[in-house]
Amino acid sequence: MENPLITIFSPTYNAENFLPYVFSTLEKQAYKNFEWLIVDDCSTDNTVGLLKELQKSASFPIRIIQNETNQMVTKNIETGIHNANGKFLYLTGHDDGLKDDCLSTFVEDWNSLDAATQDNICGLVYHCEDQNGNFIGTEYPFNYWISNDFEMRFKYNVKGEKSSFHKVELLKTIQYAYPEIDVYIPENLFWFELSYQYNFMYINKVMRIYFQHDTHDNISKSIGPGKKYMAGFSFFFHEIIRKYNLYLKKNYFKIWLVFQFNYIRYSRYNLQSYKEIIQRAENKNLIVLLIPFAMMYELIKFRRFI
């Protein structure tokens, strides 16, 4: 059987209440040359059982990979990439839907590009809306704009969840060593590495329905000293600085300073000593200077010591 053009990839965890909705939006796609790849991260509900039932009636292939241990989202993305059969990978959450014309619009947009442009970008990036039809974030400064996430986020200050089709062959070239810790590591660590190497085309069209609801585990509400996930956030800021220190300092100096500042804060949230923070830092002298400001910020904004 010929490989599909598109792999729609969904990492899942306890998603049985959402998957029928996601499945229904996939069945509505006019373009059918795709597969749905799921990596289940040790769900404790009937997620896998439901997926196996959906396999029986689906008009497209559904493949299920079950983790033996909980890996969290960034590891699951890597698993999905290296098991995708499609030429392009489209990442969705386990509760996200696709606009009815999502896949056909992508294929039309991609085929409209000349061969040189296709060869020189990693993929196409669109926008999202919520389940009520509200646009999420801000638009790109230009239509059909070739750039990268650093410039898009840090120079033009584009905000919000985005919707991306990426070439699988290029995704597979991204190698990153993640620590073997059972924590949440922000997936932007992977996407920044991709942006450091490749450009994308950004298009001002809405393609994905980013479902927002009260049952989301809002990680941002659990941030603070000793809280869950702080090891992953500390690792995230340390690695961003280590990998892109000179690049960010030269091109996005303000963001470079913010990352140093957050490296201190999240390392302290992870209960590391100031001595350890300084020793691990890429910019030791700067970190020494910023520590008092980080302490003052926490005291004024959150009324807590770090």
From TrEMBL:
Classification via Pfam families: Glycos_transf_2
Keywords associated with the record: Transferase
GO molecular function annotations of the record: hexosyltransferase activity
Chaperone keyword on record: no
SUPFAM superfamilies to which the protein is assigned, alphabetical: Nucleotide-diphospho-sugar transferases
Domain Glycosyltransferase 2-like: 8-148
InterPro entries in alphabetical order: Glyco_trans_2-like (IPR001173), Nucleotide-diphossugar_trans (IPR029044)
Record bears the keyword Transmembrane helix: no
Protein name: Beta-glycosyltransferase
Organism placement in taxonomy: Bacteria, Pseudomonadati, Bacteroidota, Flavobacteriia, Flavobacteriales
